[in-house]
Amino acid sequence: MSEHIIDLEHITKYYGDNEIIKDMSLYIRRNEFITLLGPSGCGKTTTLRILGGFEKPDSGRVMFCGRDITDVPPHKRNVNTVFQKYSLFPHMNIYENVAFGLRIKKLPEKDIKEKVTWALALVGLSGFEKRMPDSLSGGQQQRIAIARAVVNEPEVLLLDEPLGALDLKLRKEMQMELKAIQRKTGITFIYVTHDQEEALTMSDTIVVINNGVIQQIGTPTDIYNEPVNAFVAGFIGESNILSGVMHKDYVCEFAEHTFACADKGFETDEDVDVVVRPEDIVIVRPEDGMLTGVVKSTIFKGVHYEMLIDQQVEGKVFQWKVHSTVMSEPGTQVGMVIDPYNIQIMKIPFNVLTGWYSEEDRVEIGTKVFDCAARGFEKEETVSVYILPQDIQITDKGDDSPNVISGEVEDFRYKGDDYEITVRSGDVLFLVHTYEKVMPGQTVSLYIPADRIRIRRREEAGEADVG
């Protein structure tokens, strides 16, 4: 295993009262192509800017080859950055654009010419030296930006959604080009994107981030085939996500059916999230299926058909997305079979929130002080607060009631048996599991029992430590 080139140690970053990065620790290996992946606002670009020295963390350290560079300015780090906006100098030809950083270093002209020639050949643009930037296509301009970055031979190259401005065909071509460049140069690439396909195509390692918290780190195969929670499963590729109950090792119930599965190590009758990929459902005759349903729609996707199938059981409707090379017409009744190894059982992730321990048995979350069952912390100490979505209850009580906070519903998803909703209260976002149907824009009150609020010190925080 190659050595660490960068270590982020307990990085926290605020913009105003909004905590963008929450106690993040991460190491990056030398010669690795690592991608920070997540939705807009998750903290991935802020993390990249901290790595580049364009932002300073409010707490924590950035280590480079064992040296603390937290306070080192960008131009003194052996790191270069490629942005989505190419930022080429319009008054300079391509040769001078690529040579700019080398001239700042005052290298001899012979060395500059040798390095620029090498960099342009690397990106497939030999012979473009005398062209001006405005004569190039978007894809060519992006290659020049990459050449300008790698010609300085940085140990680390930061790429902030560099393909976002390109059309689909060019983007796919550049994905392969970037991976090839990384292999040829041996430079550590740290890539930021919200595009799952880009991450799966190029990366050695993917770091999935949501709300400033790392959700999972792994190879593309691990992230796709073994997601650790419903967020990762839903964000990486397409998935059927349902609520389930793990009755015992290798036995799980969901969609009103008991299935054999390949997972163990859960509590008896523990609530879980269940993920089944659309391509892992086999369509059979109704009498041969574990489940039966009616095809509602069929779309040809080029290499397979995508079908939505409604399974109705005791007044509940479970809608399944299925990918198959064999088409079933809308209105057809079909059976569905799922292999035990294609059923992914996941623990329901905690809400991970920032809190302030105000006094004994009380913690402040957002604008509300909650009773809790935690002692031994310093007054006003910043802590990590863990609350399971199923431990938060929608209530009719007002904000002035103990342990009740109100907020607006931002999103909801029906999972066959219950709803998964997100509720925003000020800068705090709560994930809630409930049997009550609510709609986006609706204001709800949330009650969180004191004994369901778990607290850890920031440096000790981690889902694996929460009991």
Q: What does this entry look like structurally?
A:
With 467 residues, the protein is α+β, with helices and mostly antiparallel strands. It has 8 helices and 30 strands. The chain has helices at residues 44-52, 94-104, 109-122, 138-150, 168-185, 196-202, 220-225, 230-235; strands at 4-15, 18-29, 33-37, 59-64, 67-68, 79-82, 156-160, 188-193, 205-210, 213-218, 240-248, 251-254, 257-260, 270-276, 281-284, 291-300, 305-313, 316-324, 333-338, 344-347, 351-359, 362-365, 368-371, 381-387, 393-395, 404-414, 419-425, 428-434, 443-447, 454-457. It has a 6-stranded mixed sheet, sandwiched between helices. Strands 13-12-11-14-20 form a 5-stranded antiparallel sheet. Strand 7 (156-160), helix 5 (168-185) and strand 8 form a beta-alpha-beta unit. The chain is globular and about 80 Å long. The protein starts with a strand and ends in a 10-residue tail after the last strand. The model is unreliable at 462-467 (pLDDT under 50).
Present the secondary structure layout.
Blueprint: E1 4-15, E2 18-29, E3 33-37, H1 44-52, E4 59-64, E5 67-68, E6 79-82, H2 94-104, H3 109-122, H4 138-150, E7 156-160, H5 168-185, E8 188-193, H6 196-202, E9 205-210, E10 213-218, H7 220-225, H8 230-235, E11 240-248, E12 251-254, E13 257-260, E14 270-276, E15 281-284, E16 291-300, E17 305-313, E18 316-324, E19 333-338, E20 344-347, E21 351-359, E22 362-365, E23 368-371, E24 381-387, E25 393-395, E26 404-414, E27 419-425, E28 428-434, E29 443-447, E30 454-457
Parallel strand pairs: 3-8, 3-9, 6-7, 7-8
Antiparallel strand pairs: 1-2, 1-4, 4-5, 9-10, 11-12, 11-14, 12-13, 14-20, 15-19, 16-17, 16-19, 17-18, 21-22, 21-24, 22-23, 24-30, 25-29, 26-27, 26-29, 27-28
